[in-house]
Amino acid sequence: MTRLILSTSNIMTGGPSIIRKPGADRSNLEFTNSLRSNFLAAQQDYSLDSGSNDNSPDGYEEDTMTRPPASLWTTRAGSDYYIPTIDWSMSGLSEEPSQYDITVKLFYLPGADIKDRAQHTKDAVELVLKELGVDSIDLLIVSFPGMSFEGDCEWEADKKNSQQGNDEEEIASWPVVEELYDQGTVKKLGLAEFGSEKLSRFLSRVQVRPKVDQVNVKDCCNVPPPLLKLAKLENIELLVHNDCTNILPSGTLRELLGQGVRGAGVLSESKRGLDGMKGDLTPEWVVKYTAVVRDRGVIENKGYFAAAELRE
Fold first, then answer.
1. What order do you get walking across the sheet with 2-7 strand by strand?
2. Could you report the per-residue pLDDT of 49-88, keeping only the tens digit for each?
3. How far apart are CA 82 and CA 78, in angstroms?
4. Predicted model pTM
5. Helix (H, G, I), strand (E, B) or coil at 110
6. N or C: which end of the chain has fewer CB within 10 A?
7. The Cα angle at residue 308 between residues 303 and 310, in degrees rounded to 5
């Protein structure tokens, strides 16, 4: 088994290809475009270092045959396979960690084994800490699969939400984030897409309560009144977002890593006789991180990591 670790690097320093396009609300376009941009940049940089004669900046997108071997721009460390190679010497923030508000959102993906969530959580947070060069984060928001706010009105959306997800799996996944909180690694915990009934049930069963509930009401209207009332009663901050829950479907990941025109050329494609890694691919988690300079409200660093299991 190989664990694939994908990264975008800091997308605030990227070009226009990673900017969210109009109409892309509640999509994974920022994430997938950022990955493609980072893959292409790594292919070009490491290919130049190896003495490639291909001088076309768009050559790898136009012709898969000019794409450099994956071994040049990726790194294997034991059972981990980094796509692309991460230069940790370039990591860190420009000012002292105390000058930033750091928010991390962890997406547990459908299809991944529930019993592995504790390790997935620790791995994701560790990567972010290493990337930003910090010892702690201010807010960790957890997104469980199958959750949304959708309906003809906010009341209907809240009612539908009460039946979504899996209470037992969500409760069983929470102790690891409580552990990170107790250790001081995370200063505040949050949830995503929990309506009034789901949140009420959750609060009654956990030791460390979430202080934030992040909701997407784009396909609804407004924040449901019952949720507003509960949040005020329990002193929970409500935040809005435009992320999608299933941010990395398996088909999207295969396209990103495949041999197509927009693929990274890491996975094999037997129909076209193109070599690469083979096996069953299961996306496990995605983590999004944002570092905002407190006194200026400016996002200095923003990016994503993702992990998938490849059973060869």
1. 75-77, 80-83, 2-7, 298-311, 280-293, 100-108, 139-143, 189-192, 212-215, 237-240
2. 655 544 444 444 444 457 889 999 999 999 999 999 999 9
3. 11
4. 0.90
5. coil
6. C
7. 150
